Amino acid sequence: MMRIDIITVLPELIEGFLFHSIPKRAQDKGLVEIQLHNLRDYATNKYRQVDDYPFGGGAGMVLMIEPIARCIEKLQSERSYDEIIYLTPDGKPFKQADANELSGKQNLILLCGHYKGIDERVREHFVTREISIGDYVLSGGELAAAVVADAVIRLIPGVLSDETSALTDSFQDNLLAPPVYTRPADFRGWKVPDVLLSGNHKAIEEWRYEMSLKRTQERRPDLLSSNDSK
């Protein structure tokens, strides 16, 4: 079983996301355990304060090292962790290959930033990997943690009903997924491509590959450049 521990000041922000749909199915099957940890439970004063003004001045507040260290060290005293991941805009861009790799891990901690970020000493002494889900700034790392968790969980064997489904997603092999269709085959004269109705599996796979390549060339040619550079 994989275990994912998420440290956040706003656990309620991602509870609904992580306990429904595919993440819930994975937990119901006993394939993954998700635990949310409210950072305020590890505060050192009665006001449950977890942030303070930055040294040197400037706008915004910074998450303090002490509550984060207390939470991480408590978790580490209970089990060994493969990665302690900090969700931050200046982290490494999250790719499908990263999700593939992380899906093979046993225990992960996802640390959600908030306000102006976390004390740099947390990054220096605890964090093993930093991930960004895009070149933009969110109010906190909670949504990013939910994105990473979902992308990883769906790859765990047994989570999806069709084991091959995840292997045909966009970005596997650096190609976008081909168009998909379902019934009816003819809607207002808009017809499904004949090849998909032919029953010729070889021809269907060739068509899907050609469509994936065409769509990638049109929409994300940078992905093809990534393939060329390998």
TrEMBL record:
Protein known as: tRNA (guanine-N(1)-)-methyltransferase
Main location: cytoplasm
Gene Ontology cellular-component terms listed: cytosol
EC numbers for this chain: 2.1.1.228
GO molecular function, one term: tRNA (guanine(37)-N1)-methyltransferase activity
Domain tRNA methyltransferase TRMD/TRM10-type: 2-225
Family matches, as Pfam families: tRNA_m1G_MT
HAMAP family: TrmD (MF_00605)
Annotated localization: Cytoplasm
UniProt: S-adenosyl-L-methionine binding residues: 113, 133-138
Organism: Thermonema lapsum
Domain of life the protein comes from: Bacteria
Record function comment: Specifically methylates guanosine-37 in various tRNAs.
Subunit comment: Homodimer.
GO BP annotation list: tRNA N1-guanine methylation
Enzyme class: transferase
Protein family membership: Belongs to the RNA methyltransferase TrmD family.
Catalytic activity: guanosine(37) in tRNA + S-adenosyl-L-methionine = N(1)-methylguanosine(37) in tRNA + S-adenosyl-L-homocysteine + H(+)
